[in-house]
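Hello,

I think I submitted the flavin-adenine dinucleotide job twice by accident. Can you confirm which output corresponds to this input? Input:
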Amino acid sequence: MLPAFSYVRARSVDEAVARLAAPDARVYAGGTDLLGCLRDGVFTAGTLVSLGTVAELQGIRQTSNGGLRIGALTSIAEVAGNAAVKERYGALGAAASVVATPQLRNQGTLGGNICQRPRCWYFRGDYSCLRKSGDTCYAIAGDNRYHAIFGGNGCYVVHPSDTAPALVALGASVRIRGARGTRLVAAGDFFVGPDTDVTRETVLAAGEIVTEILLPAPPPGMKSTYRKVRARQSWDFALAGAAVALTMRDATVEAARIVLSGVAPVPWRVPAAEQALAGRRLDAKTIAAAANAAAANAEPMDQNDYKVALVRGVVAEALEACA
Ligand SMILES: Cc1cc2nc3c(=O)[nH]c(=O)nc-3n(C[C@H](O)[C@H](O)[C@H](O)COP(=O)(O)OP(=O)(O)OC[C@H]3O[C@@H](n4cnc5c(N)ncnc54)[C@H](O)[C@@H]3O)c2cc1C
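Support: Only one job matched these inputs. Its output is below.
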């Protein structure tokens, strides 16, 4: 059952920031993750501050420097269907189109997708785990088949978002607003691993709001895509996924970014795989070398070593799609 809370609709970002100063206040975007967390007792909320009617947080538009600005309250469905996203930022379009179900993509927002909490069944369940300020990660001795193979460092949740790795691969930035003003953070620095702070997944401080996501103008020759493997084809979180963004000159890769989903507590960049591509023709040999490099430093737990092969496969598939 949902606990009692107050609900207010902000009409502007300024009003939302002011309302979020209330004790135990939380941002409510589409509510698709938030309400589940409240129902399951993952955290509490005194006040939910709805951003749904804040017009300045909506929509997708071109920026003066040739990039794209996506308001944090833009629905995932709108991101997936936007012509400029699909043509110029294929990884984001592909990632948004495989998030959850059509209903959740209509209701869920891009800002909410990158701020959602992990799906680990110990974190979501009735366990006082490390991420809920307890003293242990139950996945270590428990059922860890869906857990991290990279970057666990004491807590082995995986980051649940499909759009987050695409945004990191595309070099996006996240605009944040709070009582102290505005700041712009690279998407690659927005996510916080357990080595930094095991109780949160982003750099957001209490009361801060993601207001927009900025994509830079794609360099000439950029190709990008996202692939994910899931247990059910209809809808599911990634068991493993890969966002790739390549800057190509003819058939040669000039620069590459590869970011994995479903395998680490944060979107997981694999520099060794990127280096295996840089300066090389994107042929079968190079793709195999990059796929192997992507999985090389995995540290599987006792029930999830199948993810190592999935990483190799999904990276190869994404690169083949770009070739
Ligand atoms: C059945 C199911 C299947 C799913 N499958 C997938 C999947 O395959 N891939 C995937 O990526 N996701 C999946 N999801 C997650 C879903 O995409 C998220 O629930 C959704 O993206 C969250 O968006 P929202 O707008 O509803 O956020 P909310 O639920 O409103 O918020 C989520 C969290 O982010 C915070 N928040 C929201 N917006 C902001 C903001 N602008 N600034 C600061 N904090 C903010 C909230 O306070 C809350 O803690 C699934 C969810 C469900 C229920």
